[in-house]
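Hello,

Our lab assistant flagged a job as stuck in the queue for most of the afternoon. It eventually completed. Since we weren't sure the result was trustworthy after the delay, we are filing this so someone can double-check. Below is the sequence as submitted and the structure that was eventually returned. Let us know if re-running is recommended.
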Amino acid sequence: MENQSALVRFDWAVKRLLRNKSNFVILEGFLSTLLEEKITIVRLLESEGNKDDCEDKFNRVDMLAEDSKGELIIIEVQNNRELDYFHRMLYGASKAVTEYINEGQEYGIIRKIYSINIVYFELGQGKDYVYHGRTVFKGIHYDDILQLSVRQREQFVREEAGDIFPEYYVLRVEGFNDQAKTPLDEWIKFLKTGEIAHGSTAPGLQEASERLRIDQLSPSEKQRYYSDMEAIRYQRSVIKTGWIEGHADGRAEGKAEGLAEGKAEGLLEGKAEGLLEGKAESQRQIAINLKKQGISSEVIAQCTGLSIEDISALSD
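-- returned structure --
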């Protein structure tokens, strides 16, 4: 029996529901909780996530919002493992900087940018599930923090030089232990499980529990939602299988090589080679499956990173 109170996944809601101005209160609650200050969204701007392609279907989604202070907030949800994801974060913030300043304008109008990244895989190494990164200019001789001048503080409404630069948040959702002790924990739990406990006090969650219910979707929206969720499960399963097999092969090859040559680096090289081979094989399998579904080679290339020639050579 369908759970009438079940909620849609947050990434799907960002793509389909939270772009409506009437639902900004949900995003505002999430951002206010994370950034620890009152956030009011004025409008949504164009971003890469507005594209409607196969990647939108099962990989990632992003949103670019402008708040009442004119600051830009990037929200990106990533489902699949990417080794260069930190570089993507840097690229996204840099792109926002350059896109919203015209040639000849003064540098002083560059906006403050917050990059918020919700990832459903193990990104980097660490014990926490929420990380905050910001630029700090610290003296190498006196260990002091570089402050803005009085004139700069008045004009830019900042204190430290580093306050002008983008700030990054990484929410490693899978690392959350499901024990919600703070309003931010309540939000992380919702991002991970899709559940909101009765009596949750975090801003925006009560509105989310009312407006993101699956049973309130239209028949066509509900069909698309279940189809997209199935695509996500399939994609993650294929990639995870390829990663596990590649990891196992790499360990075996590395151990054998290390023992034969008596070199410690043998294990590491074997692991790396196995991981790369496993990823390549999984991408080929994804391409084959997409070809069976009648997806064009151009779209498959965007999803897998394979060339048009490689895709054409694959057997159905």
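-- support follow-up --
The delay was a queue issue, not a problem with the job. The result is valid. Confidence is low (pLDDT under 50) at residues 49-59, 266-273. The radius of gyration is 22 Å.
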